[in-house]
């Protein structure tokens, strides 16, 4: 089968190669991949500038944001049948015994190894995955929409598990990329007013945000964002803010844009040494709560599939391009240039 693999531990070195189809082992299912999204983390693996300590075996097949059809089930698999349309969570290996595993936070397990960089992923004709990680796609949700489940579940975790956003609140989202636009839809679904912050170069993405229900759009290179947010909230400040841009400078803006006891959730990762915060005293004086939000949880996957089915989550609005897997270089180049939003590959 075709598989897009990292062939050497260095910049680039990706190739579409022919490898044997993966064998189904006990408790696993084999899935024929329909679509697989290109994630920001895939770009980091491409550049080979991801955070240290990830233990990436080489060669390895990319891809963790996918949808597909079950084509084979291993011994001991129950409740999943050949022909079912599915998506899956990503931690193919985890210990099952530690505190994080036992409390449903398996992505935080120290033994976790995820598909797409630590085990073979879904930028291939087939992928195998343990049965516990599989979620079924509702009938009225397409494969293309469902391929957005992983980032959507990331957004759901940030909004619904890490904050108390509710109707009447004002929420600020920094960064109009895939995650930011999904967070936007989550806060709108929760009844909050949403202020989306980007830069003038993000014009196209901000227009998508507007179409998805952003109540206000602010340009951080043109406006004094915290002052504008204070104005829009009659001096009170926002209830919650989400950092989805990866730009360290946003943290200060977010902290001073919040109301007293407001909540800041950080979803992006920053380059080391690029996290200047000059507003820690404001953070203390105003009792701002900061939390990191990493990955997704079981409940988020079911939630986003249901939201797609209900029409509360518009996946296709952020899925701007589909390239054939054989044309992966064009897809990666487009992701690299920041053109388009979520770019999908189709094996
Ligand atoms: Zn991802
Ligand atoms: Zn564990």
In CATH terms, what is the fold-level topology of the largest domain?
Answer: Quinone Oxidoreductase, Chain A, domain 1
What structural class is derived from the secondary structure elements? Answer: alpha/beta
User: What distance separates the N and C termini?
Assistant: 10 Å
Summarize the biggest pleated sheet.
7 strands, mixed
Overall outline: globular
| Count of individual helical segments | 11
CATH superfamily of the largest domain: Medium-chain alcohol dehydrogenases, catalytic domain
CATH class categorisation of the largest domain: Alpha Beta
The H-and-E topology, N to C, reads as EEEHEEEHEEHHEHEHEHEHEHEHEHE
Rounded Rg: 20 Å
Question: Kindly state the mean pLDDT as a whole number?
Answer: 95
The count of β-strands is 16
**In which range does the helix fraction lie?**
25-40%
Query: What is the CATH architecture term of the largest domain?
Result: Alpha-Beta Complex
Beta-strand percent range: 25-35%
- Domain module count: 2
Question: Can you describe what's shown?
Answer:
The chain is of the alpha/beta class and 347 residues long. It has two domains: 2-148 and 315-346, Alpha-Beta Complex (Quinone Oxidoreductase, Chain A, domain 1), CATH 3.90.180; 155-292, 3-Layer(aba) Sandwich (Rossmann fold). Helix content is 27%, strand content 26%. The chain contains eleven helices and 16 strands. The strands form three sheets. Strands 3, 5, 6, 7, 8, 15 and 16 form a seven-stranded mixed β-sheet that branches. It has a six-stranded parallel β-sheet with strand order 11-10-9-12-13-14, sandwiched between helices. A hairpin with a 7-residue loop joins strand 1 and strand 2. The structure holds zinc ion (ZN) (2 copies). The site of one zinc ion has 8 residues, from helix 2. One zinc ion (ZN) binds at residues 94-95, 97-98, 100-101, 109, 111.
């Amino acid at each position: 089968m075709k598989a897009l693999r990292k062939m050497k531990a260095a910049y680039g070195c990706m190739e579409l190669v022919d490898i044997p189809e993966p064998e189904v082992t006990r408790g696993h299912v084999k899935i024929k991949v329909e679509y697989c999204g290109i994630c920001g983390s895939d770009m980091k693996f491409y550049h080979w500038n991801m955070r240290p300590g990830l233990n990436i075996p080489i060669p390895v097949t990319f891809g963790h944001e996918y949808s597909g059809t079950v084509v084979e089930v291993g011994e001991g698999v129950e409740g999943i049948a050949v022909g079912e349309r599915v998506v899956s969570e990503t931690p193919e290996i985890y210990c099952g015994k530690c505190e994080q595993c036992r409390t449903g936070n398996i992505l935080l397990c120290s033994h976790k190894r995820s598909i797409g960089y630590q085990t073979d992923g879904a930028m291939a004709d087939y992928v195998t995955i343990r049965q516990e990680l599989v979620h079924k796609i509702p009938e009225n949700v397409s494969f293309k929409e469902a391929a957005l489940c992983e980032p959507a579940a990331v957004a759901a975790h940030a909004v619904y598990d890490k904050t108390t956003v509710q109707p009447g609140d004002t929420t600020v989202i920094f960064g109009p990329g895939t995650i930011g636009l999904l967070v936007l839809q989550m806060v709108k679904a929760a009844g909050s007013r949403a202020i989306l912050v980007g830069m003038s170069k993000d014009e196209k993405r901000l227009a998508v945000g507007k179409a998805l229900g952003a109540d206000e759009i602010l340009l951080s290179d043109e406006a004094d964002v915290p002052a504008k947010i204070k104005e829009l909230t009659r001096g009170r400040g926002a209830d919650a803010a989400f950092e989805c841009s990866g730009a360290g400078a946003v943290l200060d803006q977010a902290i001073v844009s919040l109301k007293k006891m407001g909540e800041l959730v950080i979803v992006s990762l920053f380059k080391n040494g690029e996290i200047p915060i000059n507003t820690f005293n404001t953070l203390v004086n105003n009792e701002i709560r900061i939390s990191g939000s990493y990955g997704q949880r079981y409940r988020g996957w079911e939630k986003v599939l249901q939201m797609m089915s209900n029409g509360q989550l518009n996946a296709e609005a952020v899925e701007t391009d589909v390239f054939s897997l054989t044309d992966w270089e064009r897809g990666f180049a487009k992701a690299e240039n920041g053109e388009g939003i979520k770019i999908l590959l189709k094996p």
